[in-house]
């Protein structure tokens, strides 16, 4: 794949900023916003890769699974565009590694700052004015919300591209890409690890009866299998289920993901019925 000879300008970045508003129209259960990401970054890719074959490869590269917060999508989009523009053919894999590493943390940050903090604040301000009979309340809420909503998207688009270009140009390519890939992989693994510990809940109620003899007296007790697992490593069963599922998906290249979900649901019902899980 040939390297870029075309630098993106503000007009190209505005095209990306405009298309962010329609990213969710192609939401699907296979790649979530993957198609939307590809559609949004397409103007930049068309400028970077005038060759149709190179453009096709680049668009397919960005059609993979993606999901983050819309207020931070712009930064990831334009940082990916900056990497497309400056990296060589053997460094393109690091672009999706960067996207994977950033989309989870940025999604959590956007939810906590925009949805959980800013929206309730401006909503309470608008509601208090509306309850007082002031028709300006809903209008004020709309204005205040979109200062952060729209302003944040635009800032992320231009900040992500220009800062990304500065970083990549001021560092040697091989060193910069290596550092970005390492940071993205570390952050991605941290997010996945946190999700396994907080979302995947697997435990067993199995208990064993234990008999012991002390001073010719027989005492009976029970030992919980789950407590033994917890002493070895808390969340051991959850980790085991996750690792087995990952290995199966990796072995089959994800072709039988739906079948795996159905089988796991059936296993959960059966094992729960027999009080194994």
Automatic annotation (TrEMBL):
PANTHER family (alphabetical): N-ACETYLGALACTOSAMINE PERMEASE II COMPONENT-RELATED, TRANSPORT PROTEIN, PTS SYSTEM
Transmembrane segments: 139-161, 182-200, 232-249, 256-274
InterPro entries (UniProt xref): GatZ_KbaZ_carbometab, PTS_IID_man
Tagged with keyword Signal: no
Keywords, in A-Z order: Membrane, Transmembrane, Transmembrane helix
Name recorded for this polypeptide: PTS mannose transporter subunit IID
Species in which this protein is naturally found: Lactobacillus kullabergensis
The keyword Metal-binding is assigned to this record: no
């Amino acid at each position: 794949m040939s390297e870029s000879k075309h630098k993106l300008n503000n007009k190209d970045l505005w095209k990306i900023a405009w298309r962010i508003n329609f990213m969710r129209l192609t939401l699907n259960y296979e790649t979530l916003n993957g198609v939307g990401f590809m559609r949004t970054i397409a103007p930049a890719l068309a400028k970077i890769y005038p060759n149709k074959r190179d453009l096709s490869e680049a668009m397919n590269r960005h059609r993979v699974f993606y999901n983050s917060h819309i207020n931070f999508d712009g930064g990831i989009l334009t940082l990916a565009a900056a990497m497309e523009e400056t990296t060589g053919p053997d460094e393109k894999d690091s672009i999706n590694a960067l996207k994977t590493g950033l989309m989870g943390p940025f999604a959590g940050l956007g939810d906590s700052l925009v949805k959980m903090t800013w929206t309730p604040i401006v909503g309470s301000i608008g509601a208090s004015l509306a309850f007082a009979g002031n028709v300006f309340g809903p209008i004020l809420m709309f204005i205040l919300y979109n200062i952060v909503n729209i302003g944040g998207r635009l800032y992320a688009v231009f900040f992500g591209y220009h800062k990304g270009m500065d970083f990549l140009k001021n560092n040697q390519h091989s060193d910069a890409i290596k550092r970005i890939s390492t940071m993205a992989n570390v952050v991605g693994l941290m997010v996945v690890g946190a999700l396994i510990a907080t979302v995947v809940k697997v435990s067993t109620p199995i208990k064993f009866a234990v008999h012991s003899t002390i001073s010719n007296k027989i005492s009976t007790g029970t030992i919980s299998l789950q407590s033994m697992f917890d002493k070895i490593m808390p969340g051991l069963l959850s980790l085991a289920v996750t690792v087995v599922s990952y290995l199966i998906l990796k072995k089959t290249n994800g072709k039988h993901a739906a079948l795996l979900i159905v089988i796991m649901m059936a296993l959960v019902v059966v094992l729960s019925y027999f009080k194994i899980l």
